[in-house]
Amino acid sequence: MVQPKDESIITDGVEAGDLNMPAIGGLEDKEGNILTGYRYYTSFTVAGNAQTNDRTWINLCGTKPLGQENILAEKTPEEEAAFYNALVGDVVITCTVEYTDGSVQTAQIGLTGRTATYGELGIAETAEWENYEDAFIVYEMK
After folding, report:
1. Could you tell me if 15 and 66 are in contact, meaning their C-beta atoms sit under 8 angstroms apart?
2. How would you class 111 by CB atoms within 10 Å of its CB: exposed for 0-12, middle for 13-18, buried for 19 or more?
């Protein structure tokens, strides 16, 4: 979780030790003062309505330690998808929405690595990219 230093949208969480890989999303002002704080959680609950700006990033990663050689190695799309599974395959996001009428809806979302064409995912910007296959991290309802 990367968020403004004096603002937290975490309402409940189990903090972890140090992160075992780089995080994305730190912000600095023009003078180099760090505006964000990093907190590492194994699980947490956020209050979506408590976020006052777009300076909160949630970086997701799994719990398996991965060596630098795994991260930097050249990979085929199939090998990259397997690497993504090792990275985030055990991540489960539980989303709960409470509506104004008091009703509640919950869904679980998993992350997985898989190969697909840009056309299959609907992200091909040109016809040439329609059949280009690559590895992606995708969200799937559990």
Report:
1. no
2. buried
